[in-house]
Write a structure and sequence with these properties.
With 486 residues, the chain is of the alpha/beta class. It has helices at 2-14, 16-28, 46-49, 62-66, 85-99, 110-113, 123-138, 154-160, 168-183, 196-204, 216-240, 262-285, 290-295, 307-311, 368-380, 407-425, 468-482; strands at 39-43, 103-107, 142-148, 189-194, 245-251, 255-257, 317-321, 326-330, 339-341, 351-353, 356-358, 386-390, 399-400, 403-404, 430-436, 455-457, 464-466. Bound molecules: beta-D-fucopyranose.
Length: 486
C-alpha cells in the first residue's frame, strides 16, 4: 500500500492532470455552504481587458496616454489589445457560463461613450455595452456594472485637471445618466466608482498610476470630488432606474502596527484613516476621520455646504475590494503622516518571509483581513449590505499540456472564503463574492506580469485556458446549488 502511495505521489509530480485531480480532491471536502441567495461571480474592468483602444469612435483615456509614457509600465507594455474582450466577449461569456458564475462585474469605459468626456455621445460605444450586456443576460448571468474604473477621458484631464476639479462630479453624473438610461432596463446592479483611494493615491499622490501626479493636495481634492461624484451618481441612478440597486466599491486593507510600540500603533491608526476610513467614514457616517482631518488640514480642500450630505446619500450596498493587510511603522522624518506602511514593494515572484506568504504582487496572503474587515463593517459601520467586489491571488502560473495547475490560488480562495463564511455566520450582511479576476489581464503599472485570472490568457495568441482554480470555483458554485454540506 505504501509503495502504491509513493508511486502515486511520484506520478503527481510529473502529471499535471493527476496533480489537478489531487488538488481538487483535497479541497472538495471543504466546500462551504453559503446562504441560498449569496452571489458568486467574477470581475474585470474595461481598460484591463477590452483592448480595442481606438475602435468605433472611442476617445483616449488617461491610461491610453499614461501607458505610452516611457518607463511608467513594466516592460513598456500597453493595453491596446489587452485580452481583446471587446471582440472575444462571446467566448469569455461562454466560459463564465461553463464555470456557473451567477454574476459578472465589468465596467464601462467613459471615453467610449463620451470621446471628449462630455457633450457628444458616441452611440457605437453604447452599442458595445448593449451587446455585451445582452450576451451576459442571455447566459443567465447577472450584470454588475461599474461606471468608473479609472479610465477617465483624457480630454477631461487635459482641460479640467480631471477629478481635481469640483465640476467633474457634474460631468460624471452626466455620463452616468447616459449609460443608465441606455442599459437601466436590463441592468439592476450599479457600482458608481471603483476604489477612490487607489485612484486618488496612486494616480495623484504616489504618481505611479495615471495621470501620474505627486501631490498631497491633489490627492485630497480628487478624493473629495470622487466621493461627491458618487453621491450624484447614486441620485442619477435612483432617478433613471428606480428599481435598481446602487453602491460604490472601496478598497479596504487593514493596517496593523509592525511592532508593539505605541508609536507604531499610532501610525497604524493614521494609516487606517488615510487608506480605509477616508472613504468609509464620509460615505457611511457623513464625516472624514477627525484625527486625519486635523493632521492633514493643510491639504484638505474646502468642503462646501451640502458636500457631506451628497457624499452620504444612502446607497443600497458597499462593495469591498480586499486582498491583504499592511504593517505600519512610525517614521518621524516623513512629513505630516509620519507613517510608512509595507506593501509598496513589488517583487517578481511570490516568496515567503518570516513564516508569512506573499503573492507575486508582494502582498501578504492574510485571510484574517477578510474577517476583520467584515466584522468592522458589522460593528463599526452599522452592518450595511456588502459585496466583496474583488478578492484574488496573483500567483505565477505555468501552462503544461494545455492545463494550468494553480494550487496556491485555490488555497487563497478557499482561505479567504472561509473567513467570509465565518463572518456571515456571525451576522455580517455579506451578499456576494466576486473573484478578481476572470481573466489574466493588464495589471496597470505591472503590465501583464501579474496573473490573477481564473482563466489563463496567452496575450500573444489570446488563447484562453480555464485554470484548476476556475474548475474549483465551478465545483464550489455547483456544491451550493446542490446544497452540499462541508
Ligand atoms: C484593484 C483594482 C483592480 C485590480 C486589482 C488587482 O485595486 O481595482 O483593477 O488591478 O486591484
Amino acid at each position: 500500500m505504501f509503495h502504491f502511495f509513493l508511486f502515486f505521489l511520484t506520478l503527481t509530480q510529473f502529471c499535471p492532470i493527476i496533480d489537478q485531480m489531487v488538488n481538487r480532491w483535497e479541497v472538495k471536502s471543504m466546500y462551504l455552504q453559503f446562504p441560498e441567495d449569496f452571489i458568486f461571480g467574477s470581475a474585470t474592468s474595461s481598460f484591463q481587458v477590452e483592448g480595442a483602444w481606438n475602435a468605433d469612435g472611442k476617445g483616449l483615456s488617461i491610461w491610453d496616454e499614461f501607458t505610452r509614457r516611457k518607463g511608467k509600465i513594466r516592460n513598456g507594455e500597453r493595453a491596446d489589445t489587452a485580452c481583446d474582450h471587446y471582440h472575444r466577449y462571446p467566448e469569455d461569456i461562454a466560459l463564465m457560463k461553463e464555470l456557473g458564475l451567477g454574476a459578472y462585474r465589468y465596467s464601462v469605459s467613459w471615453p467610449r461613450i463620451f470621446p471628449e468626456g462630455t457633450g457628444r455621445i458616441n452611440s457605437r460605444g453604447l452599442d458595445f455595452y448593449e451587446r455585451l450586456t445582452d450576451a451576459v443576460l442571455e447566459a443567465g448571468i447577472t450584470p454588475f456594472i461599474t461606471l468608473f474604473h479609472w479610465d477617465l477621458p483624457l480630454a477631461l484631464q487635459q482641460k479640467y485637471k480631471g477629478f481635481e476639479n469640483r465640476e467633474m462630479a457634474d460631468m460624471f453624473a452626466e455620463y452616468c445618466a447616459a449609460v443608465v438610461r441606455a442599459l437601466g432596463d436590463r441592468v439592476k446592479r450599479w457600482i458608481t466608482i471603483n476604489e477612490p483611494f487607489e485612484y486618488a493615491a496612486f494616480g495623484h499622490f504616489l504618481g505611479y498610476h495615471a495621470p501620474g501626479k505627486k501631490s498631497l493636495w491633489a490627492y485630497f481634492r480628487v478624493m473629495h470630488n470622487l466621493l461627491k461624484g458618487h453621491g450624484m451618481a447614486i441620485r442619477v441612478i435612483r432617478n433613471e432606474c428606480p428599481d435598481a440597486e446602487a453602491g460604490i466599491t472601496v478598497s479596504v486593507t487593514p493596517v496593523h502596527p509592525a511592532t508593539a510600540s505605541a508609536k507604531d500603533a499610532w501610525s497604524a491608526g493614521m494609516a487606517n484613516d488615510f487608506m480605509n476610513h477616508i472613504t468609509l467614514s464620509p460615505l457611511l457616517k457623513g464625516c472624514y476621520p477627525p484625527a486625519l482631518r486635523k493632521r492633514m488640514r493643510l491639504f484638505f480642500p474646502r468642503i462646501l455646504e451640502g458636500d457631506m450630505e451628497l457624499i452620504r446619500t444612502p446607497a443600497d450596498f458597499t462593495g469591498i475590494n480586499l486582498y491583504s493587510r499592511e504593517l505600519a511603522m512610525h517614521k518621524w522624518y516623513i512629513p505630516f503622516l509620519q507613517t510608512w506602511t509595507t506593501g509598496q514593494d513589488v517583487p517578481d515572484s511570490e516568496y515567503e518571509k518570516e513564516g508569512r506568504q506573499y503573492s507575486s504582487m508582494g502582498w501578504e496572503v492574510y485571510p484574517e483581513a477578510m474577517y476583520e474587515t467584515l466584522k468592522m463593517m458589522q460593528n463599526d459601520y452599522g452592518n450595511p449590505p456588502v459585496y466583496i467586489t474583488e478578492n484574488g491571488g496573483p500567483f505565477t502560473d505555468r501552462v503544461v499540456d494545455d492545463t494550468v495547475t494553480d494550487p496556491k490560488r485555490i488555497q487563497y480562495m478557499q482561505d479567504y472564503l472561509e473567513k467570509v463564511h465565518l463572518a456571515v455566520g456571525e451576522g455580517a450582511d455579506v451578499r456576494g463574492y466576486f473573484y478578481w479576476s476572470l481573466l489574466d489581464n493588464f495589471e496597470w503599472a505591472e503590465g501583464y506580469s501579474k496573473r490573477f485570472g481564473l482563466i489563463h490568457v496567452n496575450h500573444e495568441t489570446q488563447k484562453r485556458i480555464v485554470k484548476a482554480s476556475g474548475w474549483w470555483y465551478r465545483d464550489l458554485i455547483h456544491a451550493q446549488q446542490r446544497g452540499e454540506q462541508a
